[in-house]
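User: You have something folded?
Assistant:
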Amino acid sequence: MSNITLYGIKNCDTMKKARDWLDAHKAVYVFHDYKAAGIERPVLEGWVKALGWEALLNRAGTTFRKLPEARKENLDEEKAVALMLEQPAMIKRPVLARGDELLAGFRPEQYAAFFAAKSAR
C-alpha cells in the first residue's frame, strides 16, 4: 500500500497532468476523488493548518465563481472550510500527501523536489 495519496477530482486537466507526471516517474500512489468520495473535516482542517485556507480554496474554479456574491464576501478560515466541505470541487487540486507532508497544486519542479526528498531519506 502506498503512503502517498493524490487528492483531487477525476475530470480536471491539472489532475491529468499530475497523474501523468506521477505515472511517468513510476510513483506509487492512491488516488482519492474528493468530489465523489468527499473529504473528512479533520483531513481538510489538517491541510488548512499546514497550508492555510487561502492556498486551498480554489477561487479561480467555476464552482467558486458561481457562488452568490454574499457567500464569497468576508471569507475567513471557518467560512472557507465550510464551503470546501460543502463543495469539494472548491479545494485546489491536486493535493499530494505523504504523511504530514503536503503539496497543493501541480508544478513539475515541485513534484520532482518532493520525490527527491523521499529518496534522500
The chain has seven helices and four strands. Helices lie at 13-24, 41-51, 53-56, 62-65, 69-72, 77-86, 108-119. The mean pLDDT is 92. Residues 13-24 form the longest helix (12 residues).
